[in-house]
Amino acid sequence: MGIIWTIIIGFIAGVIAKFIMPGDNEPSGFILTTILGIVGAFVATYLGQALGWYRPGEGAGLVGAVVGAVIVLFIYGFVAGRSRRAI
């Protein structure tokens, strides 16, 4: 059941992050939005544990997943924008 909740929270976090940071070169579609949120949750968990906000084994919640997804979107937009200019 934990993996299903991770996918649901990841999808919600990805949708919220895309509303916060819209752009032309962002990933779209159900699966990419869900992956964005899940990766955002992992980023938030890693950063939170590194900064001492979360204990080992404790994951980020919805807010942390949204913040992580926004960070991932920002990095993705930066890298995608840079590769688009190079062509």
UniProtKB/TrEMBL annotation:
It comes from the Bacteria. It is found in: Cell membrane. The chain crosses the membrane at residues 6-23, 30-54, 60-79. Keywords: Cell membrane, Membrane, Transmembrane, Transmembrane helix. It holds the Pfam family Transgly_assoc. PANTHER family: BSL8023 PROTEIN, UPF0410 PROTEIN YMGE. Belongs to the UPF0410 family. This is GlsB/YeaQ/YmgE family stress response membrane protein. The lineage of its organism: Bacteria, Pseudomonadati, Pseudomonadota, Alphaproteobacteria, Hyphomicrobiales.
